[in-house]
Design brief:
It is a single chain. With 555 residues, the chain is an alpha/beta fold. The chain has 18 helices and 24 strands. The radius of gyration is 23 Å and the shape is globular.
């Protein structure tokens, strides 16, 4: 069936566990609200990393939404009007605004209000969190479980013991769901329900569903979960936007569906959208996009159209990433979730109608299939992309650069994935997170988080790209350190490369006169600029400016 390539339900199957009329997430202490702050100013810092050739200094001046000058404190003080506010952070590093190159922002926004399972060290700990949660609209919904380090496997019966109402829990990588018997009953999933194409209902020895659903099977239950109202969604995005600003994020490349697009449009129309959003709709929306004449690169300065998103495989954590060779100690090569003919038809239709293609490919077989298909497509206003590109066969490295495809990668996944790569891929892990190999061949590499799979906090991504270590600091010398890259290359992944991918390089990504005033001041030790990831991780954003308006300032 054309155009039915798997897309996640994202936030439609996410429901709040707080009453938005009476409960609010606390504002970070020491942070001044954006409504109180100016739309022009002079910032005096330790260094301005402009990323514009030959342009440097320790001060920057902006007004009218644009950068007016970068240079020495003395020079900028002479040039800038005396009435402009002065922000003094003499120990800070100023960079262009960080853009998160892969988010599920609305999903994350609402997930912040539900049961949080990330970090649960055992199945019992996860179940206890579910038991203590507050249901909404007759369901208990949570996110973030990761059974890779649990001694016991997820099972519907342990959820039945704590809740009689339906329970739906997304995995950390959002490629699996853990549900109870009531949820299976509502969705009418039984032992006789066949596995959907590209998905799997995990069953016990007698053929009964265990309560774990993989890939496209997730949708069997997800579609039954009540969706949040527009009011809840908009309020959640506002709160999440504030958190993004606090962390130095000024823009996102978002991968969601029509409801998220409409929510961003409502915020834009009300003047509340202060993130620059490049929006990637699911490929299921392609017929409607073609009918309406949508084109990649179209839109406003705040909300633009990216490329249609389709999936070629699953994930490493769920062992559904599609590999050229079987997983270590197994005959399983993962799970392609779209047929080649189906994918080819959708991608060709998109490209000939001026719409870029954004392909989810994690395993080396999926990456190779993505390249086979993308190389045949006509170019459009924005470059085609491979999302994740987590493991690539060395023979395909040069192909990525030649194709002009953007590699959209998430360094923060390294923080948890190192042992999984070693366990499941073994020696093929030399092709995992191959940042340096891709960059030195000329590939445009965009960095992001994949929030809520990983934290939207860019400090974690910068640390991971610089150090190539897990949360525990191991291995001490870094994992496959030959793929380590320098600090400026990491920053470019969040700025210059992100602007290239969104077609906004003439106005975003660098700090030069005339560019949009999107910038961040980071209170970090100067060792970070020499490649010390721990130094950057210990720092924090102290000033965030988007479109010339100060949206966060720590005094």
């Amino acid at each position: 069936m054309p155009f039915q390539i798997f897309t996640y339900a994202t936030y439609q199957h996410v429901e709040t566990t707080l009453d938005p009329a009476s409960s609010h997430l606390p504002r970070p202490s020491g942070v001044i609200e954006s409504a109180w702050l100016p739309d022009s100013g002079v910032l005096r810092a330790r260094r301005v990393l402009s990323l514009s050739p030959g342009l440097s200094g320790d001060a920057i001046w902006w007004s009218g939404g644009r950068i007016q000058g970068v240079g020495s404190v003395a020079a900028i003080d002479r040039q800038a009007p005396k009435a402009l506010p002065r922000f003094d952070h003499p120990d800070s590093l100023v960079t262009p605004g960080f853009v998160d190159g892969h988010t599920h922002f609305a999903m994350w926004a609402v997930a912040r209000r539900r049961v949080r399972l990330a970090g649960a060290r055992t199945r019992a700990e996860a179940v206890a969190r579910v038991a203590a949660g507050a249901p909404s609209q007759g369901w208990m919904v949570g996110h973030g479980w990761d059974a890779n380090r649990w001694a016991e496997t997820p099972d519907r019966h342990v959820l039945d013991d704590v809740h009689a109402i339906p329970v739906y829990l997304d995995s950390l990588d959002v490629h699996a769901a853990w549900v109870n018997s009531a949820a299976l009953a509502v969705a009418r999933v039984t032992r006789d329900t066949p596995d959907p194409p590209g998905g799997r209902i995990v069953r016990d020895g007698s053929g009964e569903p265990t309560g774990v659903l993989l890939e496209r099977a997730v949708e069997l239950v997800a579609k039954a979960v009540p969706a949040p109202s527009d009011e809840i969604l908009d309020d959640a995005i506002r709160e999440a936007q504030t958190e993004a600003h606090r962390l130095g994020v000024t823009g996102i490349h978002d991968v969601e569906d029509e409801r998220a697009w409409r929510a961003f449009r409502r915020l834009e129309q009300s003047g509340e959208l202060r993130l620059r959003v490049l929006f990637h709709p699911p490929v299921a929306a392609l017929p409607d996009l073609v009918r309406r004449g949508a084109r990649s690169g179209a839109g406003s300065a705040w909300l633009g159209m990216g490329g249609v998103k389709l999936f070629l495989d699953g994930s490493l954590g769920s062992r559904t990433a599609w590999m050229l060779e079987p997983y270590e100690g197994s005959r399983d090569r993962g799970l392609p979730v779209a047929g080649e003919g189906e994918a080819r038809e959708a991608m060709r239709t998109a490209a000939v109608n001026g719409i870029a293609v954004t392909v989810h490919a994690i395993g080396d077989a999926a990456v190779r299939r993505a390249l086979d298909l993308l190389e045949t497509l006509p170019r459009v206003a924005l470059p085609h992309r491979i999302e994740h590109l987590q493991c690539i066969h060395p023979a395909d490295l040069a192909r990525v650069a030649r194709s002009g495809v953007v590699a959209s990668m998430q360094p923060a996944h390294l923080l948890t994935d190192i042992p999984l790569v070693e366990r499941h891929w073994g020696g093929r892990g030399r092709g995992a997170y191959a940042f340096r190999s891709l960059l030195r061949r000329g590939t445009a590499v965009v960095f992001g988080s994949d929030v809520p799979v990983a934290s939207i906090d860019p400090r974690e991504g910068v640390y991971a790209a610089l150090e190539r270590k897990g949360f525990d600091g191991a291995p001490r010398a870094g994992w496959r350190p030959e793929e380590r890259i320098g600090f400026e290359d990491v920053v470019r992944g969040y700025t210059v490369a992100a602007a290239h991918a969104s077609g906004t390089s003439r106005r975003l990504g660098t700090l030069a006169r005339g560019a949009e005033a999107d910038l961040v001041a980071w209170a970090v030790d100067s060792a970070a600029e020499g490649g010390d990831g721990d130094a950057f991780r210990r720092g924090r954003a102290v000033l965030t400016v988007v479109g010339g308006r100060v949206v966060m300032h720590r005094s």
